[in-house]
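Lab notebook: predicted structure, single chain.

Context: the supervisor wants predicted structures on file for every construct in the current expression panel, including those that have not yet been purified. This is the next one on the list. No modifications to the sequence; it matches the entry in the shared construct table.
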Amino acid sequence: MGRVRYCLLAVAYYLPWLWFGFGGLVLNLVCAVLLLVPNRRRLGRGTRLAIRRLFIFWRQWCHATHIFRVTWRGFENETLSSGTVYVANHPSLVDAQVLLSALPDAICIFKPALLRNPAIGPAALMAGYASGGDGFGAIRDAAEKVVEGRSLVIFPEGTRTAPGQRLGPLKPGFALVASRARAPIRLLTIQVSRNLTTRGRPWWKLPELPTWMIVTLGELIPADTPMSCAEVTAYVEKQLLESAQPVAPLV
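Prediction complete. Output recorded below exactly as produced.
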């Protein structure tokens, strides 16, 4: 019976990845056509909603099949606001999908090379994800999106946390975006089960199932904070480092 259950869990694990890839391909094919439509910016919100529903369906499937469960802490009595810079640590490959499925009208920052990728670029372009390359161009573009009222999901580590670490060094770009957009910053802490698409582990390698993630809503740093960007970066790094403690497995 144990082997049968494990085989069923393995099928349930790989199916949403296949579905996710197929759904993303269809969405990008549709968006590639829509990129030719005049005044395509008006379709951006609808595209973001479609992406969010894609991620929600994927997350609900994983939850229903008991292969991946997300627990939300601190969200019960909170109203999440758009036009906010949401900052999180980055322990796994699925962090962005989970957060984009839950935050209001949310976008993230795409590298220009990814926007040119025909497999994922059209949907990101239609959704109005931030780009602009490295440096000030990316900060300016992201700030403009936040001013327009979108939520920005950003992982200041720049890559997934290295194995054996709780948090990598933070880059100050998120603080510069918030300062330029005059937007608040909201902290999020992500904790995941061992080997859930963590750095150095390919997504296709079956983890020990079931897996889990805990997302904790943290402090709100107001737009009018007296701290400088450097001080905000150091403060956020300290808060995330303290809150990203290992936790006991969920049952």
